[in-house]
């Protein structure tokens, strides 16, 4: 073969543009790994094999993808306990006021009075059961009373809801107890006992803002209330401490996200400084040039 006809292979271009380097750093494997790292750092959840990249069977893919908790202990146990604790209340204690109101349109006044008397008897039974420590049965009896007590008797229904909330509190059904307190307050906005119980439950559930609002309402109705006065002093510092903690956690998450975005450029959040404007409280971000 004539050497002159031999085609010379072009020399490989060893120079790589910034754009190509970024594209190479942004390849699928890098992105998925980086995103998984950030998800784990920000949420505490360790993501397993993604269904898109897993070559095993579909059932195995689903199982691996769903089972992505890094700590299969405390959180799952707590969730299971919450499900168990709410199982009784979810099964048979729902009271539909609107449907009951529609049904009562066909009742005479005599029938409504008779139903109210039956509800009063059931309330007395529920109170006795509560005093005996049979909180589950007392909650069931209060539910029976609510389903027969005419909706127009707001004061009576308010007491029934508040009593059932007390029974649920003893059973540690706190979210459901809060709902019952709310129903009691809807029927009687000035019901101090229901407001106090809900405020306490809110605080125990770490819903501090809601708790403080309830205690403020209590003080409007009863300025000398000792519990509400104590809460007015106790809750604001706790709320401020919680807000500072949440702000620090959020800034940490934003820093992790920023590092993920800046990593392909050989930068990190350490290359930037954040300054707060004292007058407005807003932040500005400035690049720190190397010296």
Topology:
Layout lengths: L17 H8 L2 H16 L14 H9 L7 H19 L4 H8 L4 H23 L3 H14 L5 H17 L3 H14 L4 H13 L3 H14 L4 H37 L9 E5 L6 E5 L4
Antiparallel strand pairs: 1-2
Helix pairs in contact: 2-12, 6-7, 6-8, 7-8, 8-9, 8-10, 9-10, 10-11, 11-12
Which terms would index this structure?
291 residues, mainly alpha, two-stranded antiparallel ribbon, 12 helices, 66% helix
Distance between the termini: 60 Å
Order of helices and strands: HHHHHHHHHHHHEE
Rg calculated over all Cα atoms:
31 Å
Strand content: under 5%
- Strand element count: 2
- What would you call the structural class? mainly alpha
Strand order of the largest sheet: 1-2
| Mean pLDDT metric | 76
Structure, briefly:
The chain has twelve helices and two strands. By secondary structure, it is mainly alpha-helical.
Structure description:
The chain is mainly alpha-helical and 291 residues long. It has helices at 18-25, 28-43, 58-66, 74-92, 97-104, 109-131, 135-148, 154-170, 174-187, 192-204, 208-221, 226-262, and strands at residues 272-276, 283-287. Helix 2 (28-43) packs antiparallel against helix 12. The longest helix has 37 residues, at 226-262. The model is unreliable at 1-31 and 47-75 (pLDDT under 50).
């Amino acid at each position: 073969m004539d050497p002159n006809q031999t085609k010379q292979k072009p020399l490989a271009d060893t120079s790589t543009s910034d754009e190509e380097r970024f594209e190479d750093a942004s390849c699928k494997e890098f992105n998925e790994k980086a995103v998984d790292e950030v998800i784990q750092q920000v949420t505490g959840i360790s993501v397993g094999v993604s269904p898109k990249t897993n070559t095993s069977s579909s059932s195995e893919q689903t199982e691996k993808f769903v089972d992505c908790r890094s700590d299969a202990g405390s959180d799952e146990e707590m969730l299971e306990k919450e499900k168990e604790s709410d199982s009784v209340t979810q099964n048979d204690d729902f009271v539909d006021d609107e449907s009951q109101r529609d049904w009562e349109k066909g009742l005479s006044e005599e029938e409504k009075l008779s139903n109210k008397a039956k509800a009063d008897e059931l309330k007395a039974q529920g109170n006795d059961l509560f005093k005996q420590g049979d909180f589950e049965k007392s909650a069931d009896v209060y539910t029976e009373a609510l389903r027969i007590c005419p909706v127009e008797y707001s004061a009576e229904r308010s007491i029934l809801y508040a009593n059932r909330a007390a029974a649920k509190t003893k059973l540690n059904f706190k979210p459901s107890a809060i709902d019952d307190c709310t129903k009691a307050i809807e029927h009687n906005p000035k019901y101090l006992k229901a407001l106090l119980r809900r405020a306490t439950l809110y605080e125990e559930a770490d819903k501090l803002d809601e708790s403080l609002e309830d205690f403020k309402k209590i003080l409007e109705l009863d300025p000398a209330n000792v519990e509400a006065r104590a809460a007015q002093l106790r809750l604001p510092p706790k709320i401020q401490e919680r807000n500072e903690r949440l702000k620090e956690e959020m800034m940490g998450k934003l820093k992790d996200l920023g590092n993920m975005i800046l990593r392909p450029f050989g930068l990190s959040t350490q290359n930037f400084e954040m300054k707060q404007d004292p007058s407005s409280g807003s932040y500005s971000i400035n690049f720190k040039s190397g010296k």
